[in-house]
Amino acid sequence: MTLLPSSASRRPTLAKIVATVGPACSHPQTLRALIDAGVNVFRLNLSHGSLTEHGAALRAIREAAKAADLPVAVLGDLPGPKIRVGLCPEGGLQIDERTVVIIDPARREPAASEGGCVHIGCSYAHLAGDVKPGERVLINDGALRLRAVERSPQDPPTAVRCVLDRGAPTSLLLSRKGVNLPDSDLRLSSLTERDWELVEWAVGSGVDLLALSFVRRAADVAMLQERLAGLTSVTRDVDAGQPAEIPVIAKMETPQAVAAMDEIVKQADGIMVARGDLGVEMDLWDVPVIQRRLIQCADSWGKPCIVATQMLESMINAPTPTRAEASDVATAVISHADAVMLSGETAVGRYPVETVETMNRIIHAAETYLSTRREAPTPPPHAVADRQRSAALAHGAWYVARDVGAKLVVVWSQHGGLARYLSQTGFTIPIIAYSSSAAHTRRMALLKGVRPILGTVPDEPPSALALWNDAVDTELLRRGWAGLGDTILLIAGQPLGAPKVAGTMAIHHVGNPGTGFRAHG
Question: Which residues, other chains included, contact 274 with Cβ-Cβ below 8 Å and sequence gap of 6+?
Answer without folding.
Answer: 213, 251, 252, 253, 308, 309
